[in-house]
Fold each of these.
Amino acid sequence: MTQRLVELKEITKSFGNVNALTRVTMHIDKAEIVGLIGDNGAGKSTLIKILSGVHSPDSGEIRVRGKQVEGRWTVEKAHSAGIETVHQDRALAVQHTIQRNIFMGREITGFLGLIRVKKQYEEAERLMREIGFTSKVFTPDSVVATLSGGERQGVAIARALYFEAELLVLDEPTTALSLTETQKVYSFMLAAKDKGSSVLFISHNIFHAYDIADRFVILDRGTVVMSANKSEIESAERLVQYMKDFAHAGHSHEVKP
Amino acid sequence: MNAATTPLPTTPRPRSNNSTALRWFKRNRRAMSALVILIIMLTIFTIINPRVFTNPITYRSIFISLPISLFVVVPMVFIVASGEIDLSFPATAGITSWVFAAAMRDGWDPFAALIPALFLGVIVGVFVGTLVTYVGLSSLVATLGMNFLMRGIINMGTEGVAIQFPQMRETFMWQMFVGRIEDFPWMRGFPVHMIWGILFVLLGWVLFNRHKFGTQVQIVGDNPDSATEMGINVKRVKIRAYVFMGIGAACAGVLSVLINQNWWPTTGDGLLLPTLAAVFVGGTPTWGGIGTVIGSAFGGGIIASIETGIIAAGLTGYVTQFFNGLVIILSLIGHRFNGPRYR
């Protein structure tokens, strides 16, 4: 039996009068790639912010490897549970160096909280080589503002990889990327899966998502309306058709694949 | 920035881009340009009046007032880098040094009197920081209000009466913090508090550039959303910056009491504008996210030298403000064209 890595149960989150998520239940297994899809405003980003610990749910429970999370769910807890997130905005401080961005919030410190700059530099350099920053133009001390969109995305992914995510969460990782850069991001995701990690990603491009994901979760107006394995869906076109159906259907009409 | 790290092209250039020294200069360009401004200014003053500006006594007089401002300039770099501002530190310096002065008047040992003063600085920092973060007030307005509020408390509490310490020079604390160096011939007469000021700047540099605290202050100021997403508690980091400011203001206030051997209800009042000018003239930009402790210390030196320079140059005190303004504008123009602005 496959092992549940992270489970969300009856998660509800609202911002003022807006119900972003209503009783969302979903799970991510070990070593699987889950595509989270849905229209704008469906609650995808809110769900990811909850998974990553940025938001704490109003109600519902989060389970990591079968164990319920106690107390307030935070970014630190998500990090220590092995959940690394590449946010839609890349979560970078652009006036700062690649090195600082990779270790943002988790600086390698030694005596009296002093940062071990040399160690961070070496780790960042190794990481940049690993993810294919082959160009020698950039060093770990390059300022992020001088990088292109794809390279910035690379920094954000490098950060997630450095901390050895068991669940890699990617919020629109390929938006604004070139075709080769997109391919690169997908190969990272597949490599993560090969190493036994899981991936949850949002994509607006259903055709891309179809190619790479093992399972799809469709969100619509804050609820999960479909969760299906790739084998249950014939083609990407079918997936698009489901999405259209949900857009026209009300909440009560759940469409089964 | 790119140029510093670009590999050498096939055709050799007259200047190596990979030179460590050049890279070092580029990375510290803001501090370096502040130093250049200071040097240019002192050179001009020296040309106008060589006799005064080659005499060490002139610098000694600058070094008497400079350390007080260094103790508030350094934390102000943290505040500005965190994306906020603090206009309340003059009153913080006033109210903390009042506690110090009152405790000493009541017979406390000076070092014992220092403890409640520093403690009050921490409390004020937490309070102001909480107003700005958890209550969500604009730091510009909230700290302006706090400045009036605390100065008002001083005025109500003292009704304008100063506290004098004629025996201050006999205390060990005075010797330690504000005496003159007597034992080393080549440094004779050098004010001891300038050494403390320099040590504080070095501490500030380490905290800002090599410590988790300073790094997170800069990241929070650069992009609070990114910081939150990566698990940095933005509010807590900002409050810590205000606490550092409170401690710095307390040190500045106490130092000023020691130097003047007197506490006035207006203690700290004159610090506001020169401190802000020093921070920005020194190369810390207004938009937050980055800053330079060393540069802003040079900025403090620039501001402190202007008045001395003008008097020494034989001009009247009436032109001081004009020159202050001129130096600020010219320095900002200098910083603007020295290095990229990413936001």
Note: The first helix of chain A runs from residue 44 to 51.
Amino acid sequence: MAVGTVAYFSPFVPAEWIAAHGFEPWRVVPGGAGLRGSQARAAPPEHGSGTEIVPDPWHPAAAGVCPFAHDFLMEVMGSGATAVIFASTCDQMRRMAEFAMGGREGRLPTLLMHVPATWQTAAAQEFYAAELRRLSRFLVELGGEKPSHERLVEAMLAYDLRRGDLSRDRKGATGTASELSHGRSLTVAAQIACIGMRVALVGGPLRQQDGWILQHIRKHGGEVVLDASETGERCLPAVYQEAAVREDPLRELVRAYFRSIPDVFRRPDTLMQEYLRREIERRRVQGVLLIRCVWCDLWHAQVGRLKESLGVPMVEIDLGQDDRDLQRIQTRIDALLDMAR
Amino acid sequence: MKDTSHIPAQISLRQWEGRYRSLREAGLREASYGGPLQRHFAAGDYRLEQLRFDNSAAALRLWNFLLSETERLFAAKRAGKKIIATMKDLGTVPILAYALPETVAFYPDGTWWIPCVMRQSTRDLAIADAMGIDETFCPVRAMLGAFETNQHFPPPDLLVCSVGATCDDFSAIAQRLESRRHAIHWWEIPSRQGAREEEDVMFVTSELRRIAEKLAEVTGYELTNERLREAIAQANKVREKLNQLRQLVFTAPKAPLPALEMLIAEMLAIHYCSDRGETLAVLAELVDEVQVRIEMGEGCLPADAVRVFWVNPVADLRVMNLLEECGGRLCGSDFMFCHALDAIPTDVLPMEALARMALADPMVGPAGERARRIVRDAKLFGAQAVIVSRIPGASHCATEGTVIREVVSREAGLSVLEIEVPPVSDGVRAGLRTRLEALMETVRRKRA
Ligand code: SF4
Ligand code: SF4
């Protein structure tokens, strides 16, 4: 029986580390049904029926706030979770953590984990390991138990197996694999055989209500063969090496997460650029749909860069706080499918 | 006719022509970069025509020093000095660079003001646009254009950029820059959290050592503790002088120096405008001028001007003038680098001292901590209101104003106004004026 539920979103927060301390890890993808489970939207919502922003005591959803970071905060604060972990992988999330810690209307035990943007030095890797140890102390203070070597190894291998099973279920045919790392499937079933235009989703996270985008692509003759969004397979940790897990589990956690996940905030961002080039070529992608939240500078700045470097047609869509722009997004997706044809 | 030329006043660029002539006739001696301000306008700094400047020789020197930085950087390059572009961290890496002989540091971030100063007459923003970095980013995006055109600074020998607990704008823009074949030495500043203080200091110390190694590789000079101690001593002299100036100006019964000149003077502390020795001389002359004015009971604004604490630099310098036109005066500031005004400790190893300073950056910690420092300083300088100036597109501006407003209202009981200032604010000037005047009116009513 779990001691409680620990909410987080960053792919750099290892679910198995939380689970090994006796908590249920809950990767919050906003727009779902809270702690009860996820709800993907299968069709474009009607105009004006978008997610309702919870009345917000901390911030009036002012211009400039990333809707994902904002919705994450809102969903977590109203969820009844035991605690929440933020990662400082972007300024917006870092600042949302401050609201969670010091909101007028109450607070939730909150840890802001610093995940270094630099990743090539031993010092940065050690910093990440130290942050995992700090997370451990935080969880122990909340009633968790510091895991023994055996328990940690067991949790890591179990999660690795689960991720592997889910990947195998996809039969190597990619599809959208959001939440694989954490054992919850966010979006759509795997695509077994690709018959349509081969599309890659690249960019930031999708919220639950954005699932219709995938359906729209399929309905109009496209097939998502690579989900390199932040809720997709790009942000999975590397497969564990069992011997390394048994020898030094923390070091293997650092390797699989910190040294392997190719994310947009890393400096330099070569891991991500190499990943995208490699996977786009390997999966014979014909068009890239770049998804970004409005006010997300990190992904916005990638648009020009990726257009120059990827060598396949690319269209960007920005996901806002309401559904007013649905028509525009649909038109852009259709334009991508036309270009790729 | 009575000679009023010594009386502090704010004058236009055109009026500076006559003022300059009379100062010269009276025997004004200038530094090598001296001369009439008009020449900067002729060279493309068109915004100067709309600004109002302090009429002292000290202010003339300040402006000439600021506006001649490009020439100074190109001259240093021609003289074979190593040019280090230090990006994002404000105030730390230049101290390392200036510790080494034949080395000059500057902030490409300074191009932030180019769209304003040159009234968008350059191609810098258009180049940034073409790279996909549009106006939804902070005006620092002008830096991308500056690196392509090489008009504002020569190609640097090394680019050093801090990441980690920084704004998303800069991290994203610097990465875009690197994608254009400008190799960057990245270093990390973690988000400041009390619980991790000593570990953070050790980590940042090791990051600064990495920079020192890189600097040694580029310049051929080793960064010894002795060199660094001397560089810290020089930095502390500049900070001490600046703090003296702030204390005098912010607490004087009548403002002895306008807000615009104070903003420029504070900026010198973070990178010395590419000449450390001259920075000290410029600040010293300003202090002397201010002391004389205070002794004579003179100021450039009425004694009843509303005392305002200003948060964040303004993308359009003209708004500092507007504050005064609306009846305010500057009494305290947090232009985002107040950590670069504090004395650097000399009782610890020099690299550790710099790490502590870097971690004290208000922007790497919670906005609540920044707000508490604002409260402390606002009380110290007797500020009667706080203005938070939003920077268009800046990731931190989305939320920090809310936090600052709440803390300042609760802990200091001051009125807080949040405004957004674009690089050229002429289009929103009427609205800004109305809001500033309303704030002054509110404070006056409270005062009465
Ligand atoms: S979408 Fe961008 S701004 Fe929003 S939380 Fe993710 S990285 Fe941060
Ligand atoms: S967003 Fe703010 S901190 Fe970042 S470069 Fe712009 S002004 Fe500076």
Note: The radius of gyration of chain B is 21 Å.
